[in-house]
Amino acid sequence: MESTDELPAASAGGPSPWLLRHRGREVTAPDVGFIRELIARHPEASRRQLSKELCAAWGWTQPNGAPRDMVCRGLMLALHRAGHIELPALRRKPLNPLARRPTPPPVEVDRSPLSGSFSQLPPLDVRQVRRTTEEPLFNSLMQAHHYLGYTQPVGEHLKFLVVAGDRPIACFAWSSAPRHLGPRDRWIGWSTPVRRRNIHLVAYNSRFLILPWVQVPHLASHLLGRMARMLPAEWQCVYGHPVLVAETFVDPQRFRGTCYRAANWIYLGMTTGRGKDAPTQAPTRPAKQVYVLALAKDFRRRMCEGP
Question: Computed from CA positions of residues 165, 115, 134, 265, in that sequence, does the dihedral angle turn out positive or negative?
């Protein structure tokens, strides 16, 4: 995710138009003055209450209409740490549920070999399982059988379980896309301000798993095609907006990306290997191939248009 940036009050080109930028929102001196007045009007309010008040005052909501409370709280904390505002003292230190999240426990499933031609498979059902009773099964299968294991996503994300008859055979994890990705951004052709505003229209395929005892030719590319057809509507249902582009990374030391190419995904180039939090320009991880897929014919016009 995009970090918090801060500028000095003035530069060689004159006064800076904003004091701080957090998750794409630029905060100006008048904004800071408004927040100070908000804090003064609610002297007994907690930090949580103040962030909700600020979201309401700014109309700062997610596409599904929910307030951007956590992002707003992070913004106010960044302003507090930079000395622009004075927040009330913490009343309690909440536990971070991600820091202590236990490893998904194993779940027993039928591991007998499933092979043969695609036409011999039982009927396939691809279903979104986040916040359902099947989510623990999804988490367990990812932890046990994906080479990267299971990591709880943050931000917008969906989880899909593929079932053949009554047997789980595959999993897809989708999440918010990286905010900066050179090959993708050049392919879309959007400007930096437009990218910050419309990055939520890109979905990142962070995990794709076909269980190791399933050996069916062309299954992977078929499932990728199914996902492309159903993902925009599923995202719209949960988050109140569609996604227009799908992207993924492929480690060339492990995979060739054959199923993505067979499903009409486009290879754009390689990542730099620096990651989103790299402190220098030096690579910190293996470079990966970048693949993308347009999910709407007019995606470029819709993603590059102004507000």
Answer: negative
Same domain, 49 and 118: no
Residues 211 and 293 in one domain: yes
What is the C-alpha separation between 305 and 296, in angstroms, rounded? 15
Based on the domain organization, do 174 and 68 belong to the same domain?
A: no
Q: One digit per residue, pLDDT tens: the chain, 307 residues? A: 344 555 444 444 445 577 887 776 788 999 999 999 999 999 999 998 999 999 999 988 877 778 888 889 889 998 998 889 999 988 776 655 555 678 899 999 999 999 999 999 999 999 999 999 999 999 999 999 999 999 988 889 999 999 999 999 999 999 999 999 999 999 999 999 999 999 999 999 999 999 999 999 999 999 999 999 999 999 999 999 999 999 999 999 999 999 999 999 999 999 987 655 545 555 567 899 999 999 999 999 999 986 5
Is residue 238 domain-resident? yes
The reply to whether 204 and 120 lie within a common domain is yes
SS3 of residue 58 by DSSP: helix
**CA distance linking residue 165 with residue 83, whole number of Å:** 59
Domain span including residue 41? 5-81
Instruction: Tell me the CATH number at 163.
Output: 3.40.630.30
Phi, psi of 269 (to 5 degrees): 145, -160
**Whether residues 61 and 161 fall in one domain:** no
CB atoms within 10 A of CB 302: 13
The dihedral built from the CA positions of residue 156, 283, 103 and 110, taken in this order, carries a sign that is positive
Same domain, 11 and 159: no
Contacts of residue 284, Cβ cutoff 8 Å, sequence gap at least 6: 273, 274, 275, 278
Q: Name the pTM for this structure.
A: 0.74
Neighbouring residues of 25: CB distance < 8 A, sequence distance ≥ 6: 60, 75
